[in-house]
């Protein structure tokens, strides 16, 4: 049935455009290799392509046969492997999970008996950003003709106080570890793209995520260093005020 459809589409074109033999159906412009040339003598309707390197209507036949006819199949999907599709869905889950943890941290630092509003704001913004990362992957999945499959998420812990480190340092060290873990996951995704010769996906991960991820790791590392330096108590309050005044999101 597909073959019939393809043929019926191509048939009417054949006399005009698929002809590439030697002599003279199209207006003749040239007989030099690979070029179409005009014949001033008036063979205006005669196509002639000599030594053509690309015959679009001939070569497109196999693609035309592959155009899906069932409504649940993507029309756009092209050179997109199942492992890459699955790896994107995994990364969507990673971004959502990290967003969820940051949201739990925001809720903790916003409590009335914790009241570190700057740190709360920092984690709220970070949570939104991770969700935006998930959405970026969702859009990309759809762009490539993959199917987004959302997976379950881990329930984050609710309390971030730590006996030795205190809450701010503990949460920031946790955030640093999460960003490094995300970096590892992104590198795995890039590896999946490489293994499946998906240059487009590799480029997407590189240009949209890898650079920014390194920036995030550097920024949170600095926050961990600063929190270690200032110690608990008043130092944390000053750190909190700095974030309240407006610090970059990770
Ligand atoms: Fe992210
Ligand atoms: Fe991040």
From TrEMBL:
Pfam families noted in UniProt: Ferritin (PF00210)
Single GO MF annotation: metal ion binding
GO terms for cellular component: chloroplast
Domain Ferritin-like diiron: 78-231
Reaction it catalyzes: 4 Fe(2+) + O2 + 4 H(+) = 4 Fe(3+) + 2 H2O
E.C. number(s) listed in UniProt: 1.16.3.1
Major localization class: plastid
GO BP terms: intracellular iron ion homeostasis; response to oxidative stress
Enzyme class per UniProt: oxidoreductase
Binding site for Fe cation: 95, 130, 133, 179, 213
Xref: Gene3D superfamilies: 1.20.1260.10
Subunit organization: Oligomer of 24 subunits. There are two types of subunits: L (light) chain and H (heavy) chain. The major chain can be light or heavy, depending on the species and tissue type. The functional molecule forms a roughly spherical shell with a diameter of 12 nm and contains a central cavity into which the insoluble mineral iron core is deposited.
Protein name, UniProt field: Ferritin
Source organism: Salvia divinorum
Name of encoding gene: FERRITIN3
């Amino acid at each position: 049935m597909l073959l019939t459809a393809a043929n019926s589409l191509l048939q009417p074109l054949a006399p005009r455009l698929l002809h590439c033999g030697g002599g003279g159906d199209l207006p003749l412009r040239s007989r030099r290799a690979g070029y179409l040339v005009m014949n001033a003598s008036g063979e205006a309707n005669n196509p002639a392509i000599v030594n053509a390197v690309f015959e679009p209507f001939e070569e497109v036949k196999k693609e035309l046969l592959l155009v899906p006819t069932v409504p649940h199949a993507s029309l756009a999907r092209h050179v997109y492997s199942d492992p890459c599709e699955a790896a994107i869905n995994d990364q969507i889950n990673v971004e959502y999970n990290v967003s969820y943890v940051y949201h739990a941290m925001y809720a903790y630092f916003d409590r009335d008996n914790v009241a570190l509003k700057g740190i709360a704001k920092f984690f709220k913004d970070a949570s939104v950003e991770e969700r935006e990362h998930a959405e970026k992957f969702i859009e990309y999945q759809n762009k490539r003709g993959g199917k987004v499959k959302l997976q379950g998420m881990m329930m984050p812990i609710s309390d971030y106080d730590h006996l030795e480190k205190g809450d701010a340092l503990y949460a920031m060290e946790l955030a640093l570890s999460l960003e490094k873990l995300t970096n590892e996951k992104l590198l795995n995704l890039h590896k999946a793209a490489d293994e499946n010769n998906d240059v487009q996906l590799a480029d997407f991960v590189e240009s949209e995520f890898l650079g920014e991820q390194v920036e995030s790791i550097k920024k949170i590392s600095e926050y961990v260093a600063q929190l270690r330096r200032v110690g608990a108590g008043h130092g944390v309050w000053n750190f909190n005020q700095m974030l309240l005044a407006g610090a970059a999101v990770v």
